Amino acid sequence: MSKLINEQVRKMEILISGLRSNKDVVKNWGISESLISELDVEKIELDKDNQELERLKTEIREKSRAATKRMVNLKKKYTVVKKVIKRDAEPIKWGQFGIMDRR
């Protein structure tokens, strides 16, 4: 989505520049200075929104990596503990420890 937004912002910058340099002509067409200013404000806000989206995407990627790493570590510990229980406890008692495996 960022490419689309960046492209639109770039197009608006070019359009606004062209409108401002030809404002005497475009005012006769009903395009006022205030409309040009509104377009500029909207373009600036869109660019800010896009930057925030990119920051949030980066943050989500980092959190996702950290969560995946944490899950892998937890699964390893789970496997170790489960093996200890299966080794030392009778199969009939595995359920007491939250292990639902059956032989």
Q: Provide the succession of SSEs.
A: HHH
Number of H/I helices? 3
Low-pLDDT stretches are none
Q: Helix amount, in percent?
A: over 70%
Structural class by SSE content = mainly alpha
Number of strands: 0
Q: Could you describe the 3D structure shown?
A:
- With 103 residues, the protein is mostly helical.
- The chain has one domain.
- The protein has helices spanning 2-21, 23-26, 33-88.
- The longest helix has 56 residues, at 33-88.
- The relative contact order is 0.08.
Topology, please?
Blueprint: H1 2-21, H2 23-26, H3 33-88
Helix pairs in contact: 1-3
Brief overview:
With 103 residues, the chain is mainly α.
Short descriptors:
103 residues; mainly alpha; rod-shaped
